[in-house]
Every structure is written in C-alpha cells, then in structure tokens.
From TrEMBL:
Gene3D superfamilies: 1.20.58.740, 1.25.40.410. It holds the Pfam family DHR-2_Lobe_A. Keywords: Guanine-nucleotide releasing factor. One of its GO terms (biological process) is small GTPase-mediated signal transduction. Coiled coil: none annotated. This is DOCKER domain-containing protein. One of its GO terms (molecular function) is guanyl-nucleotide exchange factor activity. Belongs to the DOCK family. Residues 101-497 form the DOCKER domain. InterPro entries: DOCK, DOCK_C_lobe_A, DOCK_C_lobe_C, DOCKER_dom, DOCKER_Lobe_A, DOCKER_Lobe_B, DOCKER_Lobe_C.
Length: 519
C-alpha cells in the first residue's frame, strides 16, 4: 500500500486498494472467511501501522488505509449475514446481489459477485437466472472493451437479450482499472458461456443475439470449426423453437406476488405465521400484532391492448416483462361471487423494479394500479378472453384437438346461469341498454360477433380433425352452437344467417355468420 502511495506521488493507492478488495471478495464470495477473528485483528493491525507511521502522518495515507479496512469490514459483515442465511437461497442471493450492486462502478468486483450468484443459481436449478448473470458479466466486459475502443459493441448489443442490461452502464473508468486484464479473448469465452447457459435455460430465442457478437470475431480469426459449431447450435436452437411453439411444452416461469405484513419475524417461529388466503386488500391495522402474515397471489404477465399484437409467442409473452396482473372477484353485497348481473372484479396491475428474467428471482414491486370492473365490464372481459383463447388455438401450426374441443364445449354448451349466453341474457336485452349504457352494450355485441365467428372457425377445424368415432360428438357441438346462435338472435331481435343449415356445396367448409344491429 505504501509503495503504491509513493508511486502516485502520495495521492492515492487505488491500484492496491482495488487489488485487495478484489482478492478478499473472491475469497469470501463462497462464504469462506466469514467470522474469522484473526482476519479482523489483521485489519486493526494494518490501521495501527498506518497511524503510527510518522513519515505519513501529514499525508492522506492513514485515512486511505482506514477507508480500505472499513470497506473490507463492510464486505465481511455482508458475508456474515450470508452465513446466517446460507439455508435460505433467496435471501442469500439477495445479499450477494446487494454486494454486486454496491460495486457497480468496479467491473472486476461486480463480476466476482455475479459469478458467485450464477454458481448459486445453478446449484438451485434456477437456470434462467444463472444465464442472466452470465449475460450481465459478458455485457460488463463488452462495455469495458468498447469504452477502450477494443470491441465494436457495448451494452446496446445485449438489450434484446435483457432490458436490465443498462445496470452495467454504471461502470467508472479510473486509474485502478489498468489492472483489469479484459481482452477480446476473455469476452469471447464469456459469450460462449452465455450460449451454453441460454440453451440450458431453454431461452433458445436469445442465442442468436449472442451469436451475432461471436460470428464476426470467429470470421476475422478464421476459426471455421467454431463457426461450424456455432451455426450448428443455431440450427438446433431454431428447431427447438419450432418444437416448443408446436407442443407448448416449455416452462418459462410462474409468477407470484408475495406480501409480508405485521411486526412478527418469520425465522424459526413458524407457528406465529398466518397465511392470508385471498387476494383482497389488507388493512395492517386489522391484523393481530402477535403474528406475521404472508399473502401469496398468483399473477400473470400484463400487456396493454396495443402491445398484445406484438406478443405472438409464449416466449415474447414471458420475457422482458415487468408488468403483472391479478384479479379479485367481489359483489356490492359483500359476497365474493354472485350472478352475472352483480359480479364485479378488481384488476390490479403491478410494476416491478426490474424485468423478468433477472439475475435474481425476487424483484421488488415498485408500482400498483387498480381498476374496478362493473358487471358489464366483466362480461366484456370474459367474452374477449374466450374469443382470444379460441383464436389462439385455431391459429396454431398444429391444432391441439383435445384443447380445442374442451374450449368449444365450454363456449357452445347452452347453460342457464353460466357461460356466454348468461352474459347475453343479462346485458344484451333491449331493456338493459339504458341500465348499463349503450356504449358498453354495443361493445359487448361487437365482442359476441367476434366470438360467434371464432366458434364457427373452431367447429370447422374440429370437423376436419375428428375421426369417425367422434362424428356424433361433433354433431352435438354443432347443434349446441345453432341453439346458441338462435337464442342470441331472439335476444337481439335479429335474423341470423346460417349457411350450414342449408345444403352446402362445399361440405369441407362450414361457415356461420351473425349480423348484429347497432346498439
């Protein structure tokens, strides 16, 4: 430390400071030095030596040493907390993340903790989060090289992989960074790790963005074997994408909002923890102060209507997302559920501080918006959802016949107090227009028009898919559909044109059309 201080003409020993912090962080990143009394004593001895050095008393050396030992103790305290929570993987990773974030300006230190987090995620089987840690490390190195004009791309090249990548822009360039030996070769090695990690996480769509960074380097170096392997990986990735789109068998994430209430501690006192069973608003003043409360609510990714057409695949609907939604049913009478004419629901949209997937699984909720849906709004919402589900099934490359028939049965079966016709009876009748507003009634009629069209297409597809043993079942669906359309026609006093009821010159194509009058 003293030699480095003299070398800088008694200004700083930043290089040694960084080297020591990096070395200590690497030693304790796996909870190795935690709680060592001798290590703490050695820090005190270093401070004493610095304060007793007469030749340095009039310089900033003692305060520099004090700052270094204080920073080391901060790291040690954080790792002591890690030891306390080593059986709680989520808390452990949160603590590691806090250290990684505190070193955002120093690439090598941040990299140390991101690498440690990646190892922990792999150990826990959290492959998407591990992949994101590797991507952040690669982006950090790329940005460093880009600023040094040693690589053509920086953070911007990774934004299609994760929108969280801007975190790496906090890196600072200082004299101590001359000891960080990042080269193009180091970056290439990390990019190759990213490709492997994204494959294991089944995030096949992202591999191409990493490959775009590797290909120019391989080509310039004439590394044709690596190019061949990379293109083979891309070929397999695109095949996998087609496979999972057709099968729908890929788990990209399930999301829950977890809320904690009360002054109680969770720890080992599990008997004082109570689970709040519903998703209703919680008034902390009404809770028993002796207990700790936890509320777990299933949430789904949320998109504005203008965004939905852009989200065509399950991957697009589950990647780079930070808005989530859940709904709470209620009635004005106080009951949770009631008839369609009294059923309301509260839609809550949450905003998280970072997008999923992220370098950790727990992300803070930083915003919340609520909308109250009246009964007619609930009807519109439910009918839109049914129509969207049918349309999605019908537009699949390989239609899942079982799912299609299940949805069809729920849509066209004539039920007295439930299903689509319950909404039609409750809200589309002439005398209901004034009660619910002509604009809302018109919107619901438009939704029913699209719903009937979707059912027609679904029946057409089902007819072409079924074998002889399901012919009778299909005829039942057709019969129910005709009854549903007839009743809908009676409710709105409009003649419905059913070409399928007449001799059809093209029996392979069956169409139903419904013309609704303006509200």
């Amino acid at each position: 430390m003293r030699n480095n201080f003299e070398f800088t003409k008694r200004k700083t020993f930043l290089r040694t400071h960084l080297q020591i912090i990096i070395a200590v962080s690497q030693l304790i990143s796996d909870v190795a030095l935690t709680g060592s009394s001798r290590f703490q004593e050695s820090l005190s001895i270093i401070n004493n030596f610095a304060n007793s050095d007469k030749t340095m008393k009039s310089t900033g050396f003692p305060s520099e040493v004090k700052g270094l030992t204080k920073r080391i103790r901060t790291v040690l305290m954080a790792t002591a907390q890690m030891r306390e929570h080593e059986r709680d993987p989520e808390m452990l990773l949160d603590l590691q993340y806090s250290l990684a974030r505190s070193y955002a300006s120093t690439p090598e230190l941040r990299r140390t903790w991101l690498d440690s987090m990646a190892r922990a995620h792999l150990k826990n089987g959290d492959l998407s989060e591990a992949a994101m840690c590797h991507v952040h490390v690669a982006a950090l190195i790329a940005e460093y090289l880009h600023r040094k004009k040693l690589f053509p791309s920086g953070l911007s090249a990774f934004k299609k992989v994760t929108v969280n990548i801007d975190e790496e822009a906090a890196m600072k360039e200082d004299v101590g960074m001359q000891d960080v030996y990042y080269t193009e070769e180091v970056l290439v090695e990390h990019l190759e790790v990213c490709v492997d990690a994204l494959w294991k996480a089944e995030r096949y769509e992202l591999i191409t963005h990493i490959a775009k960074l590797l290909v120019p380097v391989y080509e310039r170096r004439h590394e044709y074997e690596k190019l061949s392997r990379l293109y083979e990986t891309l070929h397999r990735a695109y095949n996998k994408i087609m496979e999972v789109i057709q099968s729908g068998r890929r788990m990209l994430g399930t999301f829950f909002r977890v809320a904690f209430y009360g002054q109680g501690k969770f720890g080992n006192f599990l008997k004082i923890v109570k689970i709040i069973q519903d998703s209703n608003k919680v008034n902390p003043k009404e809770l028993d102060s002796r207990f700790a409360y936890i509320q777990v609510t299933f949430v789904k990714p949320f998109f504005e209507e203008k965004e939905e057409p852009e989200k065509k695949t399950d991957f697009e609907k589950n990647h780079n997302i930070k808005h989530f939604v859940f709904e709470t049913p209620y009635t004005l009478s106080g009951k949770k559920h009631g008839g369609v004419e009294e059923q309301c629901k509260r839609r809550t949209v949450l905003l998280t501080s970072s997008s999923f997937p992220y370098v950790k699984k727990r992300v803070e909720v930083v915003g919340e918006k609520q909308a109250e849906l009246k009964p007619v709004d609930v009807a519109i919402d439910e009918m839109k959802a049914r129509t969207a589900e049918l349309t999605k099934l019908c537009s699949s490359l390989e239609v899942d016949m079982i799912q299609l028939q299940l949805k069809l049965q729920g849509c066209v079966s004539v039920q007295v107090n439930a299903g689509p016709m319950a909404y039609a009876r409750a809200f589309l009748d002439d005398n209901k227009t004034n009660q619910f507003g002509s604009k809302k009634v018109k919107e619901l009629r438009d939704v029913f028009r699209r719903f009937v069209e979707a059912c027609s297409i679904a029946l057409d597809i089902n007819e072409r898919l079924i074998k002889e043993d399901q012919f009778e079942y299909h005829e039942g669906l057709k019969s129910n559909f005709k009854e549903m359309v007839k009743e809908l026609s009676d409710i709105i006093h409009e003649q419905v044109n059913l070409p399928a009821c007449l001799p059809n010159p093209n029996p392979e194509r069956m169409t139903f059309t419904l013309t609704l009058p303006p509200a």
